[in-house]
Each structure stands twice: as structure tokens, then as C-alpha cells.
Design brief:
Layout: H1 3-14, H2 22-28, H3 30-58, H4 65-73, H5 75-107, H6 115-134, H7 137-165, H8 179-189, H9 206-235, H10 246-291, H11 310-322, H12 328-353, H13 368-394, H14 396-406, H15 408-419
Helix pairs in contact: 1-7, 1-9, 1-10, 2-3, 2-8, 3-8, 3-9, 3-12, 3-13, 4-5, 4-12, 5-6, 5-10, 5-11, 5-12, 6-10, 6-11, 7-9, 7-10, 8-12, 8-13, 10-11, 12-13, 13-14
């Protein structure tokens, strides 16, 4: 992949446009949602992108952050980072069939989606995106460029419509219980900047291309949340109506049947783009772990024609499908927490590897060690606040279940040591 296909793939693995932000608006209100969308990137998205740019340029290996953490803290920490990241992708991609079914139901004006309909729609996204991934990273990147063009059209039209009306955003009251769900939804909409570091072995000139792609994508992602939400408020000022799938109603109200149809096409490419891009990054993790002697050898099997890790892609797709029957909110919260556990290890590696004089860094976070520490600390504080809110609002039981899920990875590691290597040399 070159710069533009990689940037488009990063866009979809992180965002895919304003779809999915409705939950934040509904729970927090328009004004608070806009504040969250504007502020959270500075303590969550931008630090993650800068960290990924520096470490990706220093260690541009297939497997990405697995090798960053491995080099900084050893094989066990590297495995935890990779395993938690792969697990997070199970939850992350499982969200997209859920959203796809929601948008199809809204677009087709179906009052109730049965489990069978959801199941078939989920397959309708997962199967073609799995087949596309089997053909390779370049095909995913080129498809991402096409999908991005389709997605931009209705929202650019909506933004111009919003600027044509104008009007102040009224401040809204936010209940304490709404803070954590709204925050998790925003964090979910801004995560994934490190995800495509795992395919740097398939990128042209990765030491320079990856940082450029990240820096190019940051403002696009932020603006494609802020501007459509602001413009959508001009059309639909009642935040209570911003349920999942509300963008179709907003687009129809703003531009009639034409914009409604374009919005339906954008919803399809949104779900497809996020599915294929996340699958692209996550599927390299079991492959690299198999090659490193941790997972069974067969998970590293390559397609004879395309050279892609077909076994890892297919196994990942099975996990995505099995989990795709949960609600958006429950999946988003679990997604953010599992992702955060791996991300904090990566930020630890960023700080630790600053002392590694052997690493050449074509991209370096400016400002020295103090800036690096601040970059690493900001997401830690945000994750801590989100967990504190979860503890207060959902109680000890939720936190215990999350802890048990995170323990799966270390249990596998020590079980493997106890019962024997799954991948003997």
C-alpha cells in the first residue's frame, strides 16, 4: 500500500465517518456531545496517533505493536498486547453487523428486525469483506478509497445545508448516569490509530508513509464528526431522536429522497469499510504469534496465490460473527476497555524505548521526554476516569466480568507454559 490507500484504511479502522456517534448525542445532548468530540481527541486520539507514528517509524515490522511492546518489556508483555488487541477486534468488528442491521432496518422502514434477519445481514457484511481481505492489503486500501468517496458525498451536502441555516447550540443538561456511556461512545469512535501498524510489512516505505498517513487522517476524522453533528443539529435539534440510525432521518429531512438514498449507500460502505479495515489489521496478530511460536502453526498459513494469512482471517471472521448479536452499547464499552489495556502497554513502550539509542526514528514526537510522558499520561487519565464512572454507574459486577475477560490472555500464556507448547519447533 502507498500513502493514500493506507490513509483511507486508517480512516475506516478508526472512524468511517459520523455513523456511530448518535449514541453520544442522545445520551449527552448536542452541546455536550460537540464538546466531547472536540476535546477527547487531544487526550485520546492524537496521543495514540503520535505514539503509533513514532514507534511505527522506528520498528516498521509486520505485527506492529506486538514487536514494540516485545522489545520494551519482553515476550509476555508483547503477547498480552497482541492477544488483547486481537480480542478487542472480535468485539469491535462484531459491532458493525449490529449497526448494519440497524441502518438497513431504518432505510427499509422495517419496524422490527428478527434474529434471523440480523444474522443474514451480518453475513452479508462479513463474508464479502473476508473475501476481500483474502486478496490482500492493497485491495483493502483501494476499496477504502472508493468507500471514502461514497461516504463523503451526503455529509458534505449536509454540512453545506447546516452552514446555510446557522444558529447557536443550546446548552443541555446531562445526567450523571449518561456520562460514562457517552464517553465510551466517543472513545470508541476515536480508537484504532495503532491498528494498521500490524501490516507495515505490506506498506511501501513504511518508516515515512505510516506517520504521514496518520497525520493526514487525524484532521479528517475530527472534522467528519464535528461538522456533521453540528449540521445535523440544525436539522434535528431534539437530541432524544438521535438514536442509532438517526443519520438517515437527518439526511432525508435535509435533502429529501436523494440525500436519503446517498445516506443509505454511505451507511453500507461505513459498515463494510470498518469491517474490512479492522479485519486487515487484526488478522496479522495470530499470524505473527504463530510465526513466533506462541499460537499453533496453522494460524500462520498463507494463501498460495495472494500470500495473505487466510487461516487467521477466517478464524477472526468466525469470532466476529459469533459476537455480532449483542447490543451496540454493551459491545462499545467492552471494546474500549480491552483496547485500552493493550494501548497502555504501547504507551509504556513509547516511554521505555526513548532510552533505546539504537532505534532510528524518522518520526519523533517533538519536545523531548517530558512531552512523551505527557502524551502517554493523557490517555491513562481518560481511561481511569471512564473506569471510575463505570464503577459508579454499573457497579462491581461489571468490573469483575471485564477483569475476567482480560485474564484470558495471561491464563493462555501460563497454561501454554504448564501444559506444553502448541507450536513446537
Amino acid at each position: 500500500m502507498g500513502l493514500l490507500p493506507l490513509a483511507a484504511s486508517i480512516f475506516f479502522v478508526v472512524s468511517g465517518g459520523p455513523f456511530g456517534i448518535e449514541e453520544t448525542v442522545q445520551k449527552a445532548g448536542i452541546s455536550t456531545a460537540l464538546l466531547m468530540i472536540a476535546i477527547v481527541p487531544f487526550v485520546w486520539a492524537i496521543p495514540a496517533a503520535l505514539m503509533s507514528a513514532e514507534l511505527g517509524s522506528a520498528i516498521p515490522r509486520e505485527g506492529g505493536y506486538y514487536w514494540w511492546v516485545h522489545r520494551a518489556f519482553g515476550p509476555f508483555a508483547g503477547f498480552l498486547c497482541a492477544a488483547w488487541s486481537w480480542m478487542y477486534s472480535w468485539v469491535d468488528v462484531a459491532i458493525y453487523p449490529v449497526l448494519f442491521a440497524t441502518y438497513v432496518g431504518k432505510f427499509a422502514h422495517i419496524g422490527h428486525m428478527t434474529p434471523l434477519m440480523n444474522w443474514l445481514l451480518g453475513l452479508g457484511i462479513l463474508v464479502p469483506m473476508t473475501l476481500l481481505n483474502l486478496r490482500g492489503a492493497l485491495q483493502v486500501g483501494l476499496s477504502s478509497l472508493l468507500f471514502l468517496a461514497v461516504l463523503l458525498v451526503p455529509f458534505i451536502a449536509l454540512i453545506f445545508r447546516g452552514f446555510g441555516q446557522g444558529g447557536p447550540v443550546a446548552m443541555s443538561d446531562v445526567s450523571h448516569a449518561a456520562i460514562a456511556p457517552a464517553l465510551y461512545a466517543v472513545m470508541w469512535n476515536y480508537l484504532g490509530w495503532d491498528s494498521l501498524s500490524t501490516v507495515l510489512g505490506e506498506v511501501e516505505g513504511p518508516k515515512r508513509t505510516f506517520p504521514k498517513a496518520l497525520l493526514l487522517t487525524i484532521p479528517i476524522v475530527i472534522l467528519l464528526y464535528l461538522l456533521p453533528v453540528w449540521a445535523g443539529w440544525q436539522v434535528m435539534p431534539d437530541a432524544a431522536k438521535w438514536e442509532d440510525g438517526a443519520w438517515l432521518a437527518i439526511l432525508e429531512k435535509a435533502g429529501g429522497p436523494t440525500l436519503y438514498a446517498l445516506g443509505g449507500a454511505a451507511a453500507v460502505v461505513y459498515c463494510a469499510g470498518l469491517t474490512m479495515s479492522t479485519m486487515l489489521g487484526a488478522s496479522r496478530l495470530p499470524m505473527v504469534l504463530a510465526e513466533d511460536g506462541i499460537f499453533p502453526k496453522w494460524l500462520g498459513a498463507k494463501h498460495p496465490r495472494f500470500g495473505t494469512p487466510w487461516a487467521a482471517i477466517v478464524v477472526s471472521a468466525v469470532f466476529y460473527f459469533v459476537l455480532s448479536f449483542q447490543s451496540f452499547q454493551s459491545l462499545a464499552e467492552l471494546d474500549v476497555i480491552i483496547y485500552s489495556a493493550a494501548l497502555l502497554l504501547e504507551f509504556g513502550a513509547l516511554v521505555a524505548l526513548r532510552r533505546d539509542a539504537e532505534l532510528e526514528r524518522p518520526f519523533r514526537i517533538p519536545g523531548g521526554l517530558f512531552t512523551v510522558l505527557l502524551t502517554a499520561l493523557a490517555p491513562v487519565v481518560l481511561v481511569g476516569f471512564a473506569l471510575y464512572q463505570t464503577w459508579n454507574e454499573q457497579g462491581r459486577e461489571t468490573m469483575i466480568w471485564i477483569g475476567l475477560i482480560l485474564l484470558i490472555a495471561p491464563a493462555f500464556w501460563f497454561g501454554r507454559k504448564l501444559f506444553g507448547n502448541l507450536n513446537p519447533a
